[in-house]
Amino acid sequence: MSEHFKQLAAERAAEDVKSGMRLGIGTGSTAEHFVRALAVKVSEGLQVVGVPTSERTHALCVELGVPMTTLDNEPELDLTVDGADELDAHLSLIKGGGGALLREKIVAAASKEMVVIADSSKAVSRLGAFPLPIEVVPFGLEATRRSVLSVLSKLELPDVLHLREKDGQAFVTDGGHVILDAHLEDIPDARELAMELTAIPGVVDHGLFIDLATRAYVAGEDGVAEILPETAA
Length: 233
Ligand SMILES: O=C(CO)[C@H](O)[C@H](O)COP(=O)(O)O
What we know:
- Catalyzes the reversible conversion of ribose-5-phosphate to ribulose 5-phosphate.
- Its EC number is 5.3.1.6.
- Pfam families: Rib_5-P_isom_A (PF06026).
- This is Ribose-5-phosphate isomerase A.
- The protein is an alpha/beta fold.
- It has 2 domains: 2-124 and 210-221, Rossmann fold, CATH 3.40.50.1360; 132-204, Alpha-Beta Plaits (2-Layer Sandwich), CATH 3.30.70.
- Helices cover 30% and strands 26% of the residues.
- The strands form 4 sheets. The protein has a 6-stranded mixed sheet with strand order 2-1-3-6-14-15.
- A hairpin with a 2-residue loop joins strand 9 (165-166) and strand 10 (169-170).
- Helix 1 packs across helix 2.
- The longest helix is centred in the N-terminal third of the chain and has 15 residues, at 29-43.
- The protein binds ribulose-5-phosphate.
- Ribulose-5-phosphate (5RP) is lined by residues 26-31, 82-85, 95-101, 104.
């Protein structure tokens, strides 16, 4: 069922795409529904160019004939459409379950608008149940891991960090980095944690997306809801 809701949210976002737009194109199963909906519109004559946020999305765009460009050619984008692992009422997000958080954040930051597409299971009152991906440089991994643990301890968060693996090896991102997944259960102050993590040498980025999403389409039993960010207290 959640696959159907992902598709509904993606199709709603595709309706916002107009000819001439420069798009950021996200990564993951929900974003793939968006690529498929976009490809149909392109085959009907819609003229757009997209910057894919991962090699996986790039391959799908090639397969489906969605025209692509690079962020170097188009450093300012009109609209990015991407999925999320969690979103709260302020449209703060956890992303990176698919490991593409770095390119996703660069592309979202280069866009005038970022639309999040999700099934309703992703909407939470507070972020943190989904493990927070922290992308780190392989050089000095143990030292960086200790620095991350010390930030978690300072903020009184659980010190559970797992190096992400794939097929028994460390998972390597498109940028050649590795990922530490932080099992925090609950993040009382996402902004503070984001700032602390960003300041650690060796941390390339993390999956907290704050003040980037401008709108979300969340699909569930009652249809597709449009969500605008609540102003933070
Ligand atoms: O951040 C992401 C990839 O890095 C994805 O957007 C996130 O993991 C959601 O994936 P899905 O749409 O498959 O549930």
